[in-house]
Each structure stands twice: as structure tokens, then as C-alpha cells.
Amino acid sequence: MKSSLKNMVLVLFTIGGVSALLVGLVHNITKDAIAQAEEQKKNKAKFEVLSTTESEAVILEDATRKIGDFEVKVSTVASRATNEIIGYAVEAPSITANGYSDRIYLMVGFVETDGEVRINSVEVLSQKETPGLGANMTKPGNKLENSVLGKNPATMTFKVKKDDPRGSFDALSGSTISSRAYANAMETAYA
Question: pLDDT tens digits, residue range 156-177?
């Protein structure tokens, strides 16, 4: 084959076309497995945010609530042994405040203690924040998580203290935008 511009362009387009077909094929093969893994991760998080396991508890009801154009999923979790409600696992996105790169999705566990609703635990389901900055929200014991654990959400102000001195959230260092989105996702979960 003679080396000419026409031949080089033809080879380049052929390689590009074959590569695109292979990427599409791999996507089609793996999309169901990825969706199934995401669903398993969410189901596991429902129990983890309520400090229980699937062998100790059962999901009594899965409900979907609409907040504007967004869906918030609420799961009622009960003890397998006594059938008493342990708490509620709420999957919620940040609605009005995006993170630095995209929406943040949280799983929040609400339990009732001494007649008051309390935040038991929070797990970040999805985030695309900057590694070492906003992505630190996924680390156990981070400032955002510590701002809410054990607190009654009815008494909280869902703002970052940097923006409002009455705010309930300590921002992650260098990640105010991500922290605002986290606070907004928490507010969505509580709503």
C-alpha cells in the first residue's frame, strides 16, 4: 500500500471505527452488570446507615417521593426478629446546589431516639468531586459527616457555616462548593 494522505486517512478512520464499535460492544455487555452492582451497593447502604445488616433487618417498604423533578427514595427498615421499625434509609440527591463537578447522592439513615428523629449515619453513594478536596466527603469521620451524626435534623440549618454563621455544616477545607451540595442533599433527605 502506497503511503499517501488518502491511505493514511482511510487507515485512521478504519481504526477509529473499529475502536468505537469495540467500546460500544463492551458498554452493552457490561451495562447490566454495572447497574446490578450499583443496586446492590444501594441496598447494602440502606442497612449500613441504620447500623444493621441484611441478616438482622428487612426492608418493609420502599417508597418514592417527588421533590420538584427529583425522586427521593425512602426505605422503611425493620428488625427481622421483632418486626419493629429500626429507622428510615433515604437516598437523596443535591437538588439546588451541585457539587464542583456534578450532583451528590447520599444515603441517610434516620432513627427515632427518645421521641426525636436523629441522623444515625450518612453514606455518599455518588460524587465526582476533586480527589483530595471535595472527594474527602467519602472518608469516614470527615467534617461534614461529623457535623450531622446524632443530630436532630429539625433543629439544623442546612447551610455551611462559612455562608451562614447559623449553619450546621463545617466545610471541608478547600471544598465549599462540595460542602454546600452535601448540605443540600442532607436537606433533601430530611424533606
Answer: 888 888 888 888 888 788 878 8
What SS3 class is residue 125?
A: strand
pTM, to two decimals: 0.79
Parallel, antiparallel or unpaired: strands 105-113 and 85-93: antiparallel
Total Cβ atoms within 10 A of residue 172: 22
Element (H, E) at 25: helix 5-48
Return the bridge partners of 87, or none: 77
* Cα 80 versus chain centre, distance: 26
Which triple of cell numbers denotes residue 54? 441484611
**118 Cβ contact list (under 8 Å, min separation 6):** 110, 111, 112, 150, 151, 152
